[in-house]
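Entry 14. Ran structure prediction on the chain below.
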Amino acid sequence: MLHVIEQSHDPAIRQLRKNYISPSETTRAIDPIVRGILESCPLVVIDVTTGCLCDGPERTRIFKADPTFKELILSMTREVDDERILRVVASFFRYGMFSHAWQGNEPSFQDVNIVKSVWNLPDTSLNKKLRNFCKETRRLGYNWAWSDTCCIDKATSSILNQSLTSMYKWYADSAVTLVFLAGVAHPSKLGDLTHSYWMTRAWTLQEFLSPKVIFFYDSEWKPYLGDTGTNHKESPEIMQELVDAMKIPRGTIVTFSPDDLGAREELRLASTRNATVKEDVAYSLIGIFKSDIRPHYGEGADALGHLLEEIVARYGEVTVLAWSGKSSSYNSCLPASVSVYSQTPYNPQSLEEEEMETCITELRGKLPQQVVLGIYNQINFLPPARFSTRRLHLPCIAFSVRKLGIQEIHRGNEKLYRARVSGLGKVEFTTADELPLDKPQKFVFVHPWIRHIRGPSDEVVWGGDSESDTDFDSDSECDTGSDEVAPPLPSPVVPAPQVDDYTRALQMIARLRQPFNALLLVQQPYGEYKRVAAGNEIVVPGLRANIT
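Output, structure tokens:
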């Protein structure tokens, strides 16, 4: 039709051409939108009709051969409707994601490529699991399905790494995520989900939190609890079961964003989950922490070290240091296992107004204003904690150990020590580490929770920690290992009336007098410090009144 108009000898008829667009012009408008949509989709998916693995170019070819494409072209004759194109293209390329616990020799990328289709795979229970996922995805009305078993060419490191770092977003952008609970018998009952093997796996945390729409299935591919609703994240019964188990608000589960929870809380969620491959404990959290670490299988426990280091560097979070157990070989201030974050760290309570006033009145009569303001300024302008070449630069208030000895020997390798500490008095702790009592090494207890010491403030101040002896010398830094997830902070309070700097400084001293969870460090030959891994939290009495 347009060709006839263009070839007309009548200028008036040729002028009509301006009122219409050609199919090629529409196609040129569609192509970049298709590319944009596919850029946010998984690299390879399963065509649930043919069972074939399809990359981006193949999906584009299938789209242009589909009646949907022709109908889209014919629907626009006078002008390009970008919104319509986006709506149609996005709908065509919607995909379903699979979440499950690996059970052994799952079908691989190479396995499917050899037989050309998932429908041609040998009749085994694991291949049947994959096929049932594809069937259910197709029943729900989607053209494409993704499974971590066969949609990643794990033999190509660049593809594997890109997949690992993009996986959180792929689940978040999916039309639906189907969760298969292989160990949950039919008919399922309340509690089966939270006691399932699936709930113990590292990767399934992000696979559950990030999607907007999710369905749980029992071992016979029947909806969990018989719930046939349109989204199990909208099921009060299922969500309450998960809220009770995970101890996070329902709203956080339903519409999760990495910014919804603090780093310490996200590590707590990860602490009860396990991975077959050690590195996956860290790699499975890349999306939840919006991390930039690059997967490198073979680095072992260092993977967790890299993740925790980045948390300190990016967020200035030092609550990651609040743990007891075994130290990491990556850095002594970091734990060897994420499981330590299941522990609830000691959380000093905010001083009530009347209690604070009593402390300030007492301190005002004992401490010279110049000394107090000096301490206040040193603490208030401390830099954030930072890592450099695996070494943590941790500004911290430090208290020197004057005397240290073994109190008793416990079962195994642990010993109970008693220390006399400047500014703190007597402190007891247990550790399996062999402490060099016969060598002239310096031990210090450090207070790294600077945000708590500063307390509620009208001004935003970035802080780390500073080293100090009994006399509160807070100018120095301890080189150790640590990661910060903002420590347990006081509950939010209504901003207090403006007070003078001296009173504000006395408030800071009052908070220093509260008990706190201390880290024990031992100085190394070249001046840096190493953390002594304690068997339990070392909660020490606060600073004694006489600090001068």
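Residues 458-476, 481-496 have pLDDT under 50 and may be disordered. Will compare against last week's run tomorrow.
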